[in-house]
Design brief:
Elements (H helix, E strand, L loop, with lengths): L2 H30 L9 E10 L4 E3 L5 E6 L6 E2 L4 E5 L2 H26 L3 H33 L5 H30 L3 H26 L2 E3 L4 E6 L6 E2 L8 E4 L4 E8 L11 E5 L8 E14 L14 E9 L12 E7 L1
Antiparallel strand pairs: 1-10, 1-14, 2-9, 3-5, 3-8, 4-7, 5-6, 7-9, 10-13, 11-12, 11-14, 12-13
Helix pairs in contact: 2-5, 3-4
Length: 342
Amino acid sequence: MSKLRKTLYAALPLAIAGGIWFGHQTQSASAAAPAVITQATILVAPGRVEPVRDPVSLAFESPGRIVAIEVEEGQAVTTGQVLARLDDRLAKARVAAAEAAVSAANANVLLARHGARAEDLAAAKAEALAAQAAADHRDAEQNRSEKLGAVGAVASAVVDADSAAARVANATAEAASARYKALAKGTRYEQILSAQAQLDASKAELEAAKVALDQTLLKAPHDGVVLRRFAEVGALVTTMTPAPIVSVADLSKLEIRAELDEADVAAIAVGKTAYATADAYGDRKFPIKITRITRELGRKTVRDDDPRARIDTRVLEVIAGFEGTPGESLPLGLRMYVHVAR
């Protein structure tokens, strides 16, 4: 037997023994290794913080000159709080004139409804009696003149004058009697309606004047925070091209409008819980819940710092509300990332 073959025969038992030991160790290691646990895939969608109710830009409804702006940017305001004022001198004068007109119209209505006083009735009755007495006297004078004229004792001109005077006296007596009867019967229903209509018109004018006065004040439509102030005291306000004076937003309820890639839209649903992060807050996780999902794909508007991120992909807007109130007052427009399990 050659030397080389003896060497191979001597090495063969060692190789077999080594193979058996290696197989045993591999089998032991495989038995000791734990099972691999597959974790759920987390989708990350960039978004921005915005209020649940959109900010509103407030402008005056009437022209004028700004005499005061009562708030500054970042200031909290309440519903109905005055934010700015216009010069209101003319508007106040119109309100005063309208109030006086209402008082006068109301007095006319009361007069029409109550009718004449007892003293007025007595005076009218006395005037009617006096006028009738004067008419009776003129009738007697006319009769006497006609008799004397018939025998030629007086001229015909005297007879004609006495006849005309009698007719005037009778007409005056009839007019006085009619006035007395009208006062005794009271005011006509049509006159009362006319006086009431005038009162209603005066009240409407007063309301219009008050509205014009109220339009010199710019008030907050709801609780919120002043985001921007666009005007200064002394500026002239016109209604041809109304310009906003301030903008206000309700920051008590915030949400995130995120953009989910088109390829991941099947993994999202309303009511799903997630969390949001922001570079400014480090590792802090803000719990959120998906509240709304839009129904139309659009172009990406939120850019991130990853140079590998595609900008030509289509996205679906997803709105998520914060669970509870965030610990800090998150600024509007803050870029955040929504993390949601697939």
